[in-house]
Batch of 4 targets.
Target 1
Amino acid sequence: MQRFSAVIVVALAACLALVSVGCVDEAKYNAVLLRNREQEKLLQEKEADLAMLNERVSALQARAADAQRMLQEKEDHLATVMKERDEVRKAFDELMGAYKKLAGGMYAPSTKIPKEVAISIQQLADQYPGLFEFDAATGRLRFASDITFDSGSNVVKAGARGAIAKLGGILSSDIAKGIIAAIIGHTDTDPVKKATTKALLQELGKPTTNQGLSEARAEAVADVLKGAGVEATRMDTRGVGSAQPITNNNTAAGKAKNRRVEIFLSMGA
């Protein structure tokens, strides 16, 4: 009986040992399993991040492709515009060359105006410094528009009107009877914006542009000369807008020089 009890005790001890070993293995297994699950979860998160990054890369690549396509389109358009600009510039230069050739024959004096007339005009210019300058060699008088007219107006200012009237007196004298006058209006490149100026030009039947304003101002100067006794048949008025600058229009000073009215005096046929 005691022996049987001892055997049972030994058996129970063995069973406990086996159970104990089994429990340790299961704990290790569970720990490994837990770590594997954590690693798998981390891997899934990394894969999700990678997928998101791949999507962002694809989106950026698509945007880059769109930007490149748009840039190419812009470059193609710019090339077309530059080509058209060059063609227009070439046509304009050809037109201006023809115009200057025509203008040279029309406005250059066939013979110099009488010396007495030139002296009288120079003396008049000296009386009005800043208003106009006179080149006796070419018979050209150049009036500063800003002194001759208010901005956007074709009404000759009082001071300028007096000087132009005196010029008309000189040109209506007997010694100057053979002189003809070509009166040319010029502007800078700033477009006509004032509503009052546009209304004025519309009333005069002229385009509401620099071209129309330059014509109106040339005609206003001719009217003052006519009022001083110069026959209308001896005068020709033209406006060329901003087509014949004497300097660039990049500065206020340059624009002021380009805004002008010129009178070319020559001997008639």
Target 2
Amino acid sequence: MFFSCVDTKIKLKPNEKNVDFLIEKGKVLWEQRTNKGALKKAEHFISRASEERPRDFELSVLLSRIKHTNANYFEKDPFIKKQALLEGAKIAKLAVLKHTKFESLFEDVIGDTSFKLISSIPNAPKELVPGLFWWAVNKAQYLNDQPVLERLNQRELLEVIMHRVLSLDPGFNYSGPYRFFGSLYSKIPGVELSQAQTYFEQAIKLNPEYLLNSVFMAEYYLQKKGDREQFNRILNNVINTDLNQYPTLMNENYFSKVHAQALLNKESSLFE
């Protein structure tokens, strides 16, 4: 009679082998990310694995990247896209905050959360670069079409995060920090547009093979400058690039070509 009262619907935790399987499956699908269905399945597997290993830094960073990719290249609904970017930023932020090499830095600072972040991030070790990078990238893209005041309120934190990445690993994600600042300073009011130009030119100089450096220069800097001729030339060069030229970048450069074509399709409205 006693056992008849016990709830038999016990949730069994996956064992370590099952979690490893989820990660392996998710990573294989991530490598097929130009396919929407594969990316969706990758997110499913990596999300489940991350739930079981919430302090796994690498896993959280990968999930943040998946959210970012889905938002930028597959999600059509503007609201869901913004939510995916915001989720990606939160996941990467938590990965940094929970990292054993950051917790003590953060806790040693006295003040509110914002002050503690601004003060501790400049001392973050190199191991945190991936988390810092995808935190800032997701958050900045989420803020792109938000009110100017909100973008300005977040500017200091974004600059602190990416300046730390720049100082530790300037070539991360194919000159990602330079690409980031080029984009940021094209959007923030009161900043000389020439600063954006300098960052974009540095990104392209160091990693011309990574097509997103050129696409972002056209989308952010050249559009803001009003240089339609150069905008058109750069994007057409991207579209005409042979993906086989850089095999290890095939996935990312494919997305860049898609991005370039989308910008050219609305060129007239961008330069009205």
Target 3
Amino acid sequence: MTMRGPAGDAGSRGDPTIPLPARPGEPPGSEYSYVAATATVPAAHGYAYQPRARRPRRRRARRVLWRLLGAVVVLVLLGLVAFGGLMAATPSAGNASQLAAEQASAHHVTYPGPPVPARFAAALTATEDWRFYSEPGIDLYAVARVGFGYITGHGIGGGATLYQQLAKMLYTNGQSSPTDEAEQVALAVKLYLTYPRPKILQMYADVAYFGDGNYGLTQASCGYFGVEPSRLSWPQAAMLAGMVQGPSMDDPLTHPGNARTREEHVIGRLVATGKLTQAQASAALAVPLSSLVANAGGCSQ
């Protein structure tokens, strides 16, 4: 007579027991049978087999996923509501051109100045806002990164578009508090909706400060290189575009090392964005700084 113990065990005579049916979805011979997974097998020969309980991992993972998705949706909705309130609370950007004219006049700059040359525009957008020609006034990725930084207390900065930088110069007196930056985000969208991109570049070039008392692109081009903006070479355009974040620190006349470093950075960005080939970049960087500023002091009439 065959003695039957737990599935897979042998009876007293060494005869194998009749295996219990496998749980649906498990291969034959699985460690746990359908019965073993749901109940304790009766004792045989003085011991009982206690199966390990199964956890519903898939159900738990689905619940976690749905909760995460719900949290994201809530955050997005709250962000949209907050942004709508911010848009309503900030002034119109319809007077931006007037404000730019007032600032230019205060610094003895003709407004509007000459058209922004293609080389300077390419250098400026490559280093300051490479999505300028496709974004809606703000870089959504950068805004999310900065917002996360404020929430976590890490203070992650950077990523301001040219629209935001222009709003900073025209509307918030160059300030960068969290409140000011929030206002700049809303105004950047309004600038995008109100003015074409060439006008944004024009206003930016006419009010930006380039150090050494030079306001606007024309003063800077003549003051540092002795040429009109339309005659800027690639290395000269790159050097000026690199100065807008630190005009006093990157002045090529007083801090040539810093200016050269910024020029190299902008030239690298021009290569990365496809505006220059590596050969053109190498040729631009081969021009000595002393040659670039040889005619500094103003444009001849």
Target 4
Amino acid sequence: MIKKSLASVLRMFCVGAVVLLAGCSTELMSPKGDIGMQERTLILTALGLMLVVVIPVIVMTLLFAYRFRASNKKAAYKPKWAHSTAIEVVVWTVPCIIVAILAVITWRTSHSLDPYKPLESDVKPITVEVVSMDWKWLFIYPDYGVASVNQMAMPVGVPVNFRITSDTVMNSFFIPQLGSQVYSMAGMETKLHLIANEPGVYRGLSANYSGAGFSDMRFDAIATTQEGFDNWIKQAKAVPQALDATSYASLAQPSTRLPVTYYSTVTPDFFGTIVNKYMGMDMSHGDKSMAMDMPMPMHHAETKVAE
């Protein structure tokens, strides 16, 4: 009877786990870039090491409960038992070894997976400047003189150097299938280096709550061939709209679900201007007059939804 009860409990646990995990996204565990693959390996390694302790504890808890149940008269009753050197050695040695291994892994990966560390490659990287806004993402390609909203593109096998800032509250730039997330903050520049190993359209998002339109603050990261990337740049250059102080003033208004937008030209060092407008107007890297004209973020209540 007891065995049947334990089996029933285990079945309920397994079914419950499957139901709860059914709605979870597997993007993090299905990486398409070198950094994402290394991070998945790190997650699984740490999980495996911790399960070395967790699984035996769960199994022994169930076995002890079954062994020393009230109805089992064969179990030895030792009310004066208080110490076992062998048990003490095991319960202290195993966790210490696991913590030591995790410490070494953490030290190494903290340096090898440093988001500020450029990726080693024989291919020249491209630079993408990222600005988080209410509630959209602006991508500037300074080497190509184009920009886009809520969509970016990159060639497969080419490192991408991201320069990231915010023109509103703090957000977090994250492409789960490519790798690390990095915060975007007003008046500051953070960095991230990623690479895509396979063609595809990968979901990007903000991983930090930033107001009413947060749930719609998503973008597409298109990993394509070099030819496909060149065509994407040509598509952006074909539109008549330019990114300057005037067009940016309109873009900066809080809005959600804004459609993909391209800009064929970009005012030089526009990214630096956005960063510096929060730094006492220190315009050593930008046009001071344009920064003075650029709008400061509006209150989140003034939100319009793009049709």
